[in-house]
Design a protein that fits this description.
Structural class: alpha+beta
Helix content: 55-70%
Number of strands: 5
CATH topology of the largest domain: Serine Threonine Protein Phosphatase 5, Tetratricopeptide repeat
Shape: globular
Largest sheet: 5 strands, antiparallel
Strand order of the largest sheet: 4-3-2-1-5
Radius of gyration: 23 Å
Number of helices: 16
CATH architecture of the largest domain: Alpha Horseshoe
């Protein structure tokens, strides 16, 4: 029996040694590299991992700022973690939060899983539309893991939650905490992120030209380019710079065409920009095609975002205008139905959306 126990132990150890997490790293040239290794330590500054060399293992580390994603090995996941991911895939945010909470408290779970569970609770609460839950989960993450790999993301999501309920003073306070943490930890990219989020705060206060200056400052900065570029597009629309909006949207689409790991949000924002410019110039069919890219084509994972919401809402408006311009009843009915489908999806995915009223009005005007 003792021999069998020893063999079982050796087999278990061998199985553990071959467990491989996937670490996706952004290189200096912007390309993405993948490493298969076991993550053993992860903080906001550095992740440490062990690579299996066959007969031995080598320990390496990587600057956390270069790591864009860590996918835990299937063999190292717990039952609750798998159930949490299944809930996320099904959009069952309550179940996701409940399961991630169990992983967070599981002393047997790997540190990687427990940190992923903590940020998973923040994301699930945000996707559910639970602003108070998002704020509470973000603060819990920072309290439990002050040096977590996901500290930056927790700050960013908490700020978004405060902005979602128009609590600008609270958003400003968290932005200051975020910036102070970045300075104390020697993370200059955090200060950039905080400034871009201040740009968003200015947008919500109606100060679009001031916000535009901030977004343009960072639109090509690797650390915060995505958020800054999306902010730039929003501001150009708000100030009515249609030529600038079309040009910037086109540039983003051209720059990212064919790139691996491209951001669906950024591409949707760029298509929306081009669509808005086309809609403003009366090219409604061109506009509709652009909005449909973001509303239906790019949103394969079903994630919610401001860009997807805009694509649905403005797509419904464009489809209604296409219907209104049609002379033949079958075609008119076809496009009106498409507009109604987009509006229905907007109402389902974004209850209370401010874009609903205009879309419903445009559809109602189609006779």
């Amino acid at each position: 029996m003792k021999t069998l126990g020893m063999i079982a132990g050796l087999l278990a150890a061998a199985g553990a040694a071959t467990a491989q997490d996937t670490i996706r790293i952004r290189n200096k040239d912007g390309s993405i590299a993948e490493k298969q290794a076991e993550v053993v330590t992860l903080t906001n500054k550095m992740i440490e991992f062990e690579i299996d060399l066959g007969t031995s293992r080598a320990k390496q580390n990587e600057d956390s700022r270069n790591v864009i994603e860590i996918v835990p090995d299937n063999n190292g996941r717990t039952f609750d973690y798998n159930q949490a991911e299944l809930a996320v895939n099904n959009g069952d945010w309550d179940q996701a939060v409940e399961r991630f909470d169990k992983v967070r408290k599981d002393q047997r779970a790997r540190e990687l899983l427990r940190q992923l569970a903590l940020i998973g609770m923040v994301k699930a609460s945000w996707n559910k539309g639970d602003v108070a839950g998002t704020i509470a989960a973000a603060r819990a993450l920072r309290q439990e893991r002050p040096e977590s790999f996901f500290i930056r993301e927790s700050f960013e999501l908490e700020v978004k939650a405060h902005l979602a309920k128009n609590d600008h003073p609270a958003a400003g306070q968290v932005l200051q905490q975020f910036e102070d943490k970045g300075k104390s930890d020697g993370m200059p990219d955090w200060s950039k992120s905080a400034e871009v989020m201040r740009g968003r705060l200015l947008e919500l206060q109606g100060k679009h030209r001031e916000a535009l200056q901030i977004h343009r400052k960072y639109a090509r900065d690797r650390d915060v380019a995505e958020e800054a570029s999306l902010g730039e597009l929003r501001c150009l629309r708000e100030i009515g710079d249609w030529a600038g909006l079309a040009s910037r949207g086109e540039a983003i689409l051209a720059e990212n065409k064919g790139k691996r790991g491209l951001s669906a949000r950024l591409m949707t924002g760029a298509y929306n920009a081009r669509g808005e410019a086309a809609l403003n110039s009366g090219k409604v069919k061109d506009a509709l095609l652009d909005f449909l890219q973001g509303a239906m084509v790019l949103n394969k994972g079903g994630e919610t975002s401001l860009e997807h919401e805009v694509a649905l809402g403005r797509g419904a408006v464009a489809a209604a205008r296409v219907a209104g311009a049609e002379k033949e009843k079958p075609k008119k009915d076809l496009w009106k139905t498409r507009a109604q489908e987009l509006l229905a999806e907007l109402e389902r995915s974004y209850p209370g959306s401010k874009l609903r009223a205009e879309a419903a009005k445009e559809i109602g005007a189609v006779k």
